[in-house]
Amino acid sequence: MPLRKLALATLVFLSLGLAVPTLAAASLAHKAVVEAMVRETIPEARLSGAGSLKMLGFHIYDARLFVGPGGLGEAIVADRPYALDLRYARDFKGSAIAKRTRKEMERLSLSDDTQRRRWQATLEGLLPDVRKGDHLTGIYRPEGYTLFLKNGAPIGRVEGAEFAYAFFAIWLHPDSRAPEMRAALLGEARSP
After folding, report:
1. Of 22, 43, 117, 146, which is most buried by a Cβ count within 10 Å?
2. Beta partners for residue 21, in sequence order
3. Is-contact 185 172, C-beta < 8 A?
4. Contact 180, 35 (CB under 8 A)
């Protein structure tokens, strides 16, 4: 597991402030660690596409979708793993991210209100606050769970294909709030 050791060493240096003197350099280091962890979790992962979310003129985050060698497949939740990485352009509370996630699931009419509120509570306990340049990554595993990373380090997972579908649909569903970003993410998602 040399990639895991590289990721751990990079995180140690980052936490000590020894490796990166600037926010831009820290973000690049996080990006490398994220990519290493994605490739460790999804062998032969490749970038499908990337896009940015802007709301009311404010840059919120940049998103990247990674898929395995077989692509994404036809369904959001299927037998193929994939990863969605978000690099935040602003600071956000983890609880605010969890609440926005529930509201987007509600907008898409995914699951019922009771289940969405349970997922919000789970995410509030899982998602940390983020600062500008931080990465939050969700990795869908066909074994039936979603693994979450912050700056490439695992922070927890949420069980269930129903959650995975509702979560990743925010970006990948045809009725996504950001259709241009969805199209950019899915650019190379299908089998080569």
Report:
1. 146
2. none
3. yes
4. no
Tokens for 37? 């962890």
Q: Quick: pLDDT tens for 130-187.
A: 999 999 999 999 999 999 999 999 999 999 999 999 999 999 999 999 999 999 999 8
The full 3-state SS of the chain, as one line of letters, equals CHHHHHHHHHHHHHHHCCCCCCHHHHHHHHHHHHHHHHHHHCCCCEEEEEEEEEECCEEEEEEEEEEECCECCCCCCCCCCEEEEEEECCCECHHHHHHHHHHHHHHCCCCCHHHHHHHHHHHHHHCCCECCCCEEEEEEECCCEEEEEECCEEEEEEECHHHHHHHHHHHHCCCCCCHHHHHHHCCCCCCC
Backbone dihedral angles phi then psi of residue 149, each to the nearest 5 degrees: -130, 145
Distance CA 73, CA 144 (A): 16
pTM of the model: 0.83
Residue type, 186: L
Question: For the chain, how long is the longest CA-to-CA vector?
Answer: 47
Domains of the chain: 45-185 (3.50.70.10)
Residue type, 161: A
- φ, ψ of residue 43 in degrees (nearest 5): -55, 140
